[in-house]
């Protein structure tokens, strides 16, 4: 049995909103309650459920972006890709620069080594080398999402969180992205947390998973 790479115990999370005014109070909205979960290393784990059930909040808890109660143990730093690839990419910069940026920020490798890794990543995510000199508005939706996936993988993470990664794509492009996730799992040994309201996509891609329900 594969070792767990993400372990979640008794996880609960609530959002607090405050009313304006001198005597404004606060409202507490529970989003997650007492979640227990183990995700095996190398698995593609699916999370589905209706809008507002807390799927994205769970991902944000795993990433440490929101406060929560309970325990989350992660054996590797996760990276995330989002629903709208266009909004995630700087429209001014060329694709080669966007892929190289994570390496520059972390001061990894020489300029030559970074250029080699960019070329290798383009091949890995199924994009032509000519994309390196193009900008996001010159790419299709599926190509943009591949770039977002490539950026997330430049630092060699072991965990990839895909939050509604195909919801903005047409059926053909979405299917290609699902197949890319499978290929990346095999070639890079990734663990993938795939979040989607599309139950057919979850059934097709994932080894196992869970269905979340709203607390309201």
| CA distance, first residue to last residue | 36 Å
User: The biggest beta sheet, please?
Assistant: 5 strands, parallel
**Oligomer category:** single chain
Provide the structure class.
alpha/beta
Task: Provide the gyration radius in Å.
Answer: 19 Å
Low-confidence parts: none
Which percent range describes the beta-strand content? 25-35%
Helix fraction by DSSP (H/I, runs of at least 4): 25-40%
Number of strands: 8
Strand arrangement, largest sheet? 5-6-7-3-8
One letter per element, helices H and strands E, the order comes to EEEHEEHHHHEHEHE
Shape: globular
Mean pLDDT: 92
Question: In a few lines, what is going on in this structure?
Answer:
The protein is an alpha/beta fold.
């Amino acid at each position: 049995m594969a070792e767990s790479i993400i372990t979640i115990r008794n996880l609960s999370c609530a959002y607090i909103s405050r009313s304006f005014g001198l005597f404004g109070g606060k409202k507490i909205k529970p989003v997650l309650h007492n979640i227990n979960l183990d995700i095996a290393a190398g698995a593609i784990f699916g999370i589905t459920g209706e809008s507002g059930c807390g799927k994205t909040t769970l991902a944000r808890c795993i990433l440490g972006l929101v406060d929560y109660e309970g325990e989350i143990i992660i054996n590797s730093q996760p990276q995330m890709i989002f629903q709208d690839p266009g909004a995630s990419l700087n429209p001014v910069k060329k694709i080669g620069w966007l892929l190289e940026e994570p390496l520059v920020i972390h001061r990894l490798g020489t300029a030559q080594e970074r250029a080699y890794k960019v070329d290798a990543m383009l091949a890995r995510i199924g994009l032509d080398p000519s994309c390196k000199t193009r900008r996001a508005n010159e790419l299709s939706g599926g190509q943009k999402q591949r770039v977002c996936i490539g950026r997330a993988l430049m630092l060699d993470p072991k965990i990839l969180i895909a939050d509604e990664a195909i919801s903005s794509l047409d059926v053909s492009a979405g299917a290609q992205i699902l197949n890319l996730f499978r290929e990346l799992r095999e070639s890079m040994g990734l663990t993938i947390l795939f979040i989607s309201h599309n139950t057919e996509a979850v059934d097709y891609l994932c080894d196992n998973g869970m269905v979340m329900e709203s607390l309201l």
